[in-house]
Amino acid sequence: MGGSTKDISRNMYIVLVTGVLLWFIYGCLKQDFPIILANAFTFLFAATILYFKLKSDFKVKLKNKSNEK
To answer: pLDDT band for position 44 (50/70/90)?
Structure first.
């Protein structure tokens, strides 16, 4: 595991996290435990990946900005 996130699509994970969050809310409204549980776990893992992707993108942007000066 190299720790690189350059091959991960930020937009795809934003859509995934948003969709899973909406399914989680739907499950809560319907009080459907399997939907709640499945989407809670998926949200947790997908949001973690998205966090690291955004963090990596921000570091690259800062590095590129400092190299321009």
So the answer is: very high
